[in-house]
Write a structure and sequence with these properties.
Blueprint: H1 2-6, H2 11-19, H3 21-27, H4 37-46, H5 59-84, H6 94-102, H7 114-117, H8 119-122, H9 125-144, H10 149-158, H11 162-187
Helix pairs in contact: 4-5, 10-11
């Protein structure tokens, strides 16, 4: 059983499970789904009686399931890494490893390349800039766009919302731009594409 769980699940199992999120949420009365609103709910829960108008709402009615979902993501991620995937190598295509090698990233055992995700990399100027600027841009974009990737791509597209389609197209365009323009600048190489 553990061997089955530790392998990537085929699309025909994982896809329908993700697809079931929408009807289950609608069944329980939720009209929104996403991770970015969880911080808002967490702040609304922890600020006490005197809080700004933005956080002054009944977070238990709107966000309790969302906070439980995020807690489940954290616990599930820790279990997946610590129990099911401890020491496993990331499943990356040969073409991606070739592009990473052009940026000076060597293939090594472990879950992710140390040149990008290692602690020594985070303490460099490029690592700090990518974390701070990337985190601020991600948070600002999620709030300005009215949701995050999971909210727009799963719930918004399932509800056939045009703003969600525009947002998802923007996510992909932004990802391509960062991969081919920003990442090579931060790592001092170039990605052929």
């Amino acid at each position: 059983m553990m061997e089955f769980l530790s392998q990537p699940w085929p699309w025909w199992v994982a896809g329908p499970l993700i697809g079931l999120v929408v009807p289950v949420l609608l069944l329980f009365g939720a009209r929104k789904f996403g991770i970015s609103s969880s911080l808002q709910h967490l702040c609304a829960a922890g600020l006490g009686a005197k809080k700004p108008a933005y956080f002054d709402y009944d977070w238990r009615r709107q966000g309790l399931w969302n906070l439980a979902f995020v807690a489940g993501l954290l616990v599930g991620g820790a279990l997946a890494f610590g129990v099911l995937g401890a020491g496993a190598e990331a499943s990356v295509s040969a073409a991606t490893w070739s592009d990473l090698a052009a940026l000076g990233i060597e293939r090594q055992a472990g879950p992710a390349p140390r040149e990008i995700f290692g602690w020594d990399r985070i303490l460099t100027l490029a690592g700090g800039v990518s974390l701070i600027v990337g985190g601020l841009a991600l948070g600002f974009g999620a709030r300005w766009g009215g949701g995050c990737t999971s909210g727009h791509a799963i719930m918004g597209l399932a509800n056939r919302q045009l703003p969600s389609l525009v947002a998802v197209l923007g996510f992909f365009a932004g990802g391509l731009a960062v991969t081919h323009l920003v990442l090579p600048l931060l790592l001092g190489g170039s990605v052929d594409g």
